[in-house]
Structure formats: structure tokens, C-alpha cells
Amino acid sequence: MAIDQAKLDRFLERFVVDLGAVLHAPNVVLGDKLGLYKALAAIGPATPAELAGRTGTHERYVTEWLRGQAAGGYVTYDPAADRYLLSEEQAFTLADETSPAFVAGAFQLATSTVVDEPRIAEAFRTGEGVGWDQHHPDLFEGTERFFRPGYVANLVDSWIPSLDGVQAKLDAGARVADVGCGHGASTILMATSWPRSTFVGFDYHRPSIEQARKAAADAGVSDRCTFEVAAAKDYPGEGYDLVAVFDALHDMGDPAGAAAHVRRSLAADGTFLLVEPAAGERVEDNLNPVGRIFYSASTLICVPNALSQGGPALGSQVPEARLRELLAEAGFGSVRRAAETPFNRVLEARP
Known about the structure:
The protein has 351 residues and is α/β, with parallel strands linked by helices. The chain is built from 14 helices and nine strands. It has a seven-stranded mixed β-sheet, sandwiched between helices.
């Protein structure tokens, strides 16, 4: 073998960064679940003993955790005072769950897949699927907490206004279905923003629907925001002014059948809001940090779920041309990209 030492060194540098990230991830989850980030943001510069006292945790564990967080840039260390603190930016992303840049939920999602690795390995061997409902519960909560900040940042102020005539309908009072709603973050956000409209979220996963109902009650929108257990291909109701599917169509066993049912359930002048992960038309267009996240998550979550339902397993990086083809086959005469972010494509489909 002729090893190029410079290339080897660059690869090993990447390995060190990646290994650190893998070991860092459960530490972020610990900081989130134990309230360490929130407490540090509240008390300001603190010693490990002070943070441990504030959170009811053990000082020695907290000391090591803080040092690792500082090494990773998630906590700031002041060597002169021998204290740790969160900068405003660190607190905004790690300690504030209402922030549109909150990231701790993403680590909860990611670490849940490690627990499920043996099941996925067996699926690799057999070709069988692994259903969404078969994953560790942290996946369900982590997914909601991962996607919610993006919805907070974009759904009401950008995505809905980008759709032709939809905001006016919502202002006046519209009927909306949110299909594949999970814990209901997107549904509740819309219901909070448009009190004259009615919203119903559908998901086949009963525990998620039960959690969504509780969240709606906590948010005070249960009078206009309900949740039902139903599959994407046969959820009840018709004449919806807006049907939305957020980051879920590619996961489904029969995405074409789901899109066709959306078309049947819409009012004559209704709109299908389809939000999918950002992706290019070719594999090489997605060989970047965002594509790495989506391909990796798709291997562990999206493809196994679709295969468990006997589906084509589109994966998370579906070319837009394929989505447009699928929507046309479902009976949509007009499809356009209404908006986009570094992580999402927002398509508007109309009959």
C-alpha cells in the first residue's frame, strides 16, 4: 500500500473531531436532562460546587462535565476566576427551549439511535424494517424538540406567508390537517397563531398523539386543536383548506398513496404544504455537513420505518424532481418551491 501521509493525517484529524463529537453528544443530553445548562445560565459564572449545589448533582461529576463542555466550546471557562459560564449565544442555544436556535433536542434524537443500533444492524442483515414505534422513546421526544425550533423560526413568519392565499384563509378561519404530526409542535404553533381556524393532527403512533393532546391542553388551544390516531393514507375528513406534512412524507411506507389521500381530502381550492429536508438532485450535491446529518439519520430512522411498511424507502434526501413527479401522480396540477432554509425545502402543491 502506498499511503499518502498528508491524506492520512487529514483523515485522522477528522476522526479525532468525530470521536469527540460522538462522546460529547451524551454529555449534552446529560446537561439538558439534569438542568445543568439552565442552571448555569441562571446563576452566571459558577464553580463546579456551586452548579452541583444548584442542581442537586455530585460535584466531581459536574467538574468533569464542565471541563469537557469547555473543551468542546459549549461552556466558557474563565481561568483567572476558575469559574464556568454560558455566553449569551451558548445560553440561547442550550438553555432556552423557546429559542429558534435551541439544539439540545437534536442530541437527544441522535443518542437515541445508538440505543437502537443492534436492532438496525439486524435489519441490515435481514432487509426487514424497523417501525417508528419500535425505537427508543427518546427518539419521539428528541424529534419534536429538534424540529420545533425550526418551526418557531419559520412556519408562521415565513412558510405560511409564502403560500398563495393561505394566510388570509387562516386569519378568517380555515380547516387544517397536520399529517404525521408527532407530538404536535407544528399543529399547536399554528393553532396558537390563528385562533379563528381549527386544526387536527394525525399520527399512527398513539403515544405521540397522547403527548400532543397534553401539549395542546398545556398551551390552552384544545378548543381548536385536536389530535387523532390515524394513518396518512386514510385519516378522516375532507374539505380541508390546508393539509401539511412536515418532514414526514419520505418516512412513509406509501408516500404516493399518502399524497393521493391528501389530494382527495383537500377543498377544491385547498393547499398542500409539504416540508422536506434540504437536498440536491444528485448524490454528489448532498456530500456536505447537512447531507451527512440527513443520510445518517435516514439510515437509522427513515429507511427502516418505510421498509417496515413495505414501502419504497425514499430516504431523507429525495430529489425535488422525484417529489414533483410523486405529487403530479397524486393529482396535483401545480407544484412550486415556496420557501427554503439550509435544512428544509417548502413545496406548495395545489389541485
